[in-house]
Design a protein that fits this description.
homodimer; 481 residues; alpha+beta; OB fold (Dihydrolipoamide Acetyltransferase, E2P); BirA Bifunctional Protein, domain 2; 2 domains; 16 strands; ligase (chains A, B); Asn-tRNA-ligase (chains A, B); nucleotide-binding (chains A, B)
């Protein structure tokens, strides 16, 4: 007889029928009421253990964390809090859990403590909910692009190019660090390394994604990317997952349309498929908020915040317009911003982005057409404006609480303009010959963007530390498990 | 006016309506018939260019590979080979393609040549088909697990553990290779490295996957894995993608059921959603086969081979039974095997696996219960048999042409048995304490398997070199693009 998953059983009406369930003990009350969970849903199944029906030796082992198999009869529950329960007829302890040693007791543990036992935190309700939402969002991403005929492309993780300059990179090598091969000049001899040259972990799949888009039309990547930056913050990881769609024949407006559609699609999918998880996380956040001073509390609860993004058309304004709004804004006039806005050309800080979204427009904002000098070489240059300002067809999407969640642009497809820009920025053309081939042969307007997956999960779960939304976070001085 | 993708237009019946299409020129015949492709499907759209209706200068630029935008009227085609065509009313060259320089001319190029221009090979029909099938298989994997309530887990790419010993690893470091930090003893000082210890690229997400399964029940991974092995073959990559499901409360039979179901599901999905691509690849393979001597040709064409896997129940036999069959087999008796089978305990070679599948059973085969000595430490030990032979509850799925496509096992959940085995194999327990915690607290039977994604794509596309089924292959001395 096969076992039935608890999620199925909780929805079942087959009262009087016998089932086997397997799972882990969450609590055991009054030597009679056992709550078990098998990971299939957030809710536990209540199992009723008839008094004196089982051997004492077995009952004594029903500690939190123990794995058990139970055969029993499904019945309507008389108690509060559950519709069904299982009257146990047969009980087997699969794996014990010594209550003096098992770190997860039925009480509230701090997130800091749980991070240290990331291999066990999956067993808490909070992390069960987080990783279910993460799973739903990942699937929604694939489904969104699949429905629209996009091709999922696996861009390389190990790369020999470091031209994008998006950040510090990790080196990948099979050389003996103690005694690396050296050439005649005494330099490290990368010809002897595995790939015959120096290689790194990728910081972005965009450039390779463009190669595919200039043939397959619409593509997306969804893979790990890396930054070797010494940032010990709640917002940065050394290893994180990115979604990077790239579309031939799209301009920057098409790009914004797609990004807005994607964000709404995946948030809606999470709300629809994880109602219990999001309800739990909403309540969790509300409780956390109570501990904070009034002015630090979230303006919206989790579901309100998610619906805020679903129900509003994202406001689209140019960087130049945003600077005007920010200059005239109260916090700028009253010098409440940490970084005061006094002119065109500066990069926006999180406080400015949040002001635009949360105070000024009260809806998600898409900022476009940033100064060329603060953006990457591959972004398409706009016509110089009347004031002689150089901008690029970039676009960033700003969300409440979190600031930038998407960054993208139309790409510079004009060979001459692109190579001139590369020269200005000291990017060696000969190393990027393969990339330039897309501009040499059948070049065409195209655009794309990047969505940091953990940022998205952070937003949808209402968590505040990015280390809590990826199973095993990597950050400076930590690569545990 | 937005452009319409060619796939849509080829299915349209809106004759007489005006459309815009954008794509790349494949061929231009008689200064009149233009075939263009935008990556949305394998088929090209025929565009009719009225003679003398367009400027000579434009028409002269309609070379293979040029990107163009065309406005025109959809009409029923009078010619053979297509149902619809577009009568051009307006023509714009977006990006030229110099026929003296563009490497992809409308003729057959060798796969070897195309591997050297992997950034452009997406533009060939063959690679368009391959990457569409790859995309379909990836989506099918996610959909299969999503429908069954599995949780997609992103296991870490950078890992501090090298306990599995599945192969040579790549080191990940931010130390200066030329002058790495050293400690008092003159040894490399990994405390100064980014993660404060030596780290590598993962060879498998299984161990971390087990941690998640022992809480969330059923999980799967789908991510990149790495081997720094100096294997310059058509079957090995240094960077490849793996799917690794892990299921709590599954025994090895449940494991086989799931793996068989998964393989059939994804193959069926590819056949249903990529009929044109698979037809094209079938014909391609048939043409390749014609060049080979009779005895090297495939016994089945591509669709026959795929249906062979769909329609047959996979044969399930033990390693011990397989050895008996192989010992008595003709090629063994006639000494035609390169590696003769003369006793129990040896590992099977590809020739043996293929004999079992293609000659003996004529169906996919699941081999189980391998000798413990040739398998990994984490596989569950069976009862010692009457001959005193030690086996483990492993299972490998063997496919025609390709040999092993899936490898898995029930996991050793018994703490004492596992730690004893680790000691025997010199695997340091203290480095694996987190892994052993799953056996200390609420341990339970569980099982899982690994499916090499590129092996699967190789099988379903009928290609013969694994470097042709991943966009940018990484192998010894090569990390291009």
């Amino acid at each position: 007889m096969k076992h039935t998953r608890i999620k199925e059983l909780l929805d079942s009406n087959e009262f009087g029928k016998e089932f086997i369930v397997k799972g882990w003990v969450k609590t055991f009350r009054n030597n009679q009421f056992l709550a078990i969970n098998d990971g299939s849903c957030l809710s536990n199944l209540q199992i009723v253990i008839g008094i004196n029906e089982f051997e004492d030796q077995q009952v004594k082992k029903l500690h939190t964390g123990a794995a058990i198999a139970v055969k029993g009869i499904l019945t309507e529950s008389q108690g509060k809090g559950q519709r069904v329960e299982l009257k146990a007829t047969c009980l087997e302890i699969l794996g014990e859990s010594d209550p003096d040693k098992f770190p997860l007791q039925p009480k509230k543990h701090s997130l800091e403590f749980l991070r240290e036992i990331a291999h066990l935190r999956f067993r808490t309700t909070t992390f069960n909910a987080i990783f279910k939402v993460r799973n739903a969002l990942a699937f929604a991403v694939h489904q969104f692009f699949n429905e629209r005929g996009f091709v999922y492309i696996h861009t390389p993780i190990i790369t020999g190019s470091d031209a994008e300059g998006a950040g510090e990179m990790f080196q990948v090598t099979t050389l003996d660090l103690d005694q690396p091969a050296r050439n005649d000049k005494g330099e490290i001899d990368y010809k002897e390394d595995f790939f015959g040259k120096q290689t790194n972990l990728t910081v972005s799949g965009q450039l390779e994604g463009e190669l595919a888009a200039m043939a397959l039309g619409n593509i997306y990547t969804f893979g790990p990317t890396f930054r070797a930056e010494n940032s010990n913050t709640t917002r940065h990881l050394a290893e994180f997952w990115m979604i990077e769609p790239e579309m031939a024949f799209y301009d920057n407006n098409d790009n914004m349309d797609l990004a807005e559609e994607l964000l709404k699609y995946v948030i809606k999918y999470a709300l629809e498929t994880c109602p219990d998880e999001i309800e739990f996380l909403k309540n969790r956040q509300a409780e956390e908020d109570k501990k904070k001073p009034q002015n630090e509390r979230a303006a919206m609860n989790l579901t309100e915040k998610l619906e805020f993004c679903l129900l509003n058309d994202f406001e689209r304004i140019s960087y130049t317009e945003a600077i005007e709004i920010l200059k005239r804004s109260k916090p700028n006039q009253k010098k409440q911003f940490k970084y005061l806005i006094d002119g065109w050309g500066v990069d926006l800080q999180s406080e400015h982005e949040r002001y635009l979204v949360e105070k000024h427009f009260k809806k998600p904002v898409i900022l476009s057409d940033y100064p060329a000098d603060i953006k990457a070489f591959y972004m398409r240059q706009n016509e110089v404006d009347e004031q002689g300002r150089k901008t690029v067809a970039a676009m960033d999407i700003l969300f409440p609480g979190i600031g930038e969640i998407v960054g993208g642009s139309q790409r510079e497809e004009r060979y001459d303009v692109l190579t001139k820009r590369m020269d200005e920025m000291n990017i060696p053309q000969h190393e990027m010959d393969w990339f330039l081939d897309t501009r040499r042969f059948g070049t065409a307007p195209h655009a794309g963007f990047g969505l940091g997956f953990e940022r998205l999960v952070l937003f949808v779960t209402g968590m505040t530390n990015i280390r809590d939304v990826i199973p095993f976070p990597r950050f400076p001085k930590s690569a545990e498990f």
